[in-house]
C-alpha cells in the first residue's frame, strides 16, 4: 500500500504504510450495509459531486 | 472546572445548484434558525466588545479616537455596579438579522461565507460534547425550516476543507488565568496540539492544501497550519493563536483560542480534544516542570508529519535531543496530567485518553468506534477493496486514493443528518456519549454552571424585556424613568446569578 502516500514528502522514510483495514471487524455488517446503500449514487455522480463541492475560506 | 466552548463553521451547499451564493444561503439559514426558535431568540450585542483593543497588542487611546469609535462609552464605567445605560440607536444600524442568540446560550450566525454555531460556555469536556451535538441538531433543524421557507434544498457539512484549497475552522476556547506566562503556553502546549491529532483527527482524503497528492491523512486541518505562533486565523495559520479577547474580566482571564483542531462528528474525539487540552493547561498554570520533556524541535513540520503517519511510528525530534513518536509524547502528557485530576469528568477523560492510546498502539482498527480518522479509514479501506480492479492474470489491485468515489465519501462522511458517520452512528458502529433526549434538551437549555444559564434563561423566559445579548452582556429594554437601554455586565464566566436578572426570571 506504499502508493497511498505522497512520494514528494521529504520525510517519506518516516512514514510507514497505512495499515490495511481488517476484513472482518465487529462492525463489518454495518460497513457493508452502508457501502451497499451508497454504491448506486457514488457510481453515478462521485466525480461531479467532488468537483462541485466548493467552499469559501472562513474563520 | 475549566470554562471552555467550541465554535463550528459548517460547509454549506445547495445540492441542486452547486454555485449558489454561500453568504446568502448562510443568512437565510440564520433567519430559518430564528424561525425555528420562535420567540426564544434575541439579537447579538455588538456593544459589549472593546472597540479600541487592537489585535496587535496596542490599544488606541481614547483621546485619539473619533466620536463614532466610542460605541462603548458608558460600558466601561466600573462605578456603575454591574449595570450601565446605553442610548438607543436606530434599527438600521443593527446587523442582528445575521445573528440568533438562542435559549441554550449559543450564538448562531453568519461568519464570512459560512453558518457558524458558537456553543455556550461550559465548565467541562462532557458538556462541551453535549452542547456541540446540540449545535449540530439546531443547525439541522434550521435546514429543515430553510427548505420549507425557501422551497430549495440545503446541505451542511461538519468538516474543514473543500479539497480545492479552502479551509474553515472549528475553534476551541479555553479560559486561562491572566497571570499564566503566555510563553509557557507557547512552549508547553504546542507538542500537545501537534500530537493529539492521533485521536482528534477526522481523517481526510488528499494530501496538500488542494489535495494535490493522492492519499489519506489523519487530519483535515494539518496542511493549513503554517506557523508556530501568530494572530492570524485565515492565512499563515498558527499552532498557537494569540488573539487576546477574553470576553471576561481582562485582569483575571485570558481566552486561549485554539484553531488547529478538526471538526469532529464523533463524540470521543470531541471529549478528548477539549478534556486533554484543559488538563494540559492546568499543568501549565501550575508550572509543572515535567512539561520540559514535551517540547518539539520542528513543531510546524511535525503537524504534517504526524497527520501522514498512519502507522503511528514516525519519530519526532525533541529539543532535549531525544526522539519520540506522537503516541509517546501523548503518554508523557497523560502521566503529567494525572496530577491535575480534580473532577469526575477529569478522571473520565484520563481513563478514556489512556484506553484510546492503548487501542491505537495495540491494533489501530480496534479504535474505530472511538477515533474518527480510524473509522473513516476503515470504511474507505473497505471501499477500496470493493472497487478493486482485477487484471487479465486475475491479480487484484485496490482502488487508488485518487478514485473520486473515495473523495466523495470523504465529503459525504460529515453531512449533517444523512452523512456516512451519522448512518454508522445509527447502526451502532460508533460510540455516542449522550442520548437523543439529552441532546434535544441541550438544544433549548443552557448549561447551569456558567453565565450561559443567565443568557439562555433570559432568552427563553423573558424575551419581552430583552434587547440583545453577548458573551458578557445582557441588554434590557423595559419601561424605566431614564428611557435608556440597561446593559447588565456578566464579566465572570462562572457567575450563574445576578440580582436584576434573577428578579426578572422569578427567582
Largest sheet of chain A: none
Quaternary structure: heterodimer
* Class inferred from helices and paired strands of chain A: mainly alpha
Could you tell me the radius of gyration of chain B in angstroms? 23 Å
Mean pLDDT across all residues of chain B, rounded? 91
Q: What is the arithmetic mean of pLDDT of chain A?
A: 71
String of helices and strands of chain A? H
Q: What gap, in angstroms, lies between the N and C termini of chain B?
A: 26 Å
Of all protein chain pairs, which has the greatest interface, and how many residues does each chain bring to it?
A-B, 44 and 67 residues
The major beta sheet of chain B can be summarized as: 11 strands, mixed
Provide the β-strand percentage band of chain A.
under 5%
The helicity of chain A comes to 40-55%
Total strands of chain A: 0
What's the helix count of chain B? 14
Give the uncertain stretches of chain A in residue-range form: 1-16
Structure explained in plain terms:
The complex is a heterodimer of chains A (59) and B (507). With 59 residues, chain A is mainly alpha-helical. The longest helix of chain A has 25 residues. Chain B folds into 2 domains: 217 residues, no CATH class; 248 residues, no CATH class. Chain B contains 14 helices and 21 strands. With 507 residues, chain B is of the alpha+beta class. In chain B, helix 2 crosses helix 12 and helix 5 crosses helix 7. An 11-stranded mixed beta sheet of chain B has the order 4-21-20-19-3-5-6-7-1-9-14. Chain B has a two-stranded antiparallel sheet with strand order 2-8. The chains are: A mainly alpha (59), B alpha+beta (507). Chains A and B meet through helix 1 of A and strand 2, strand 11, helix 6, helix 9 and helix 10 of B.
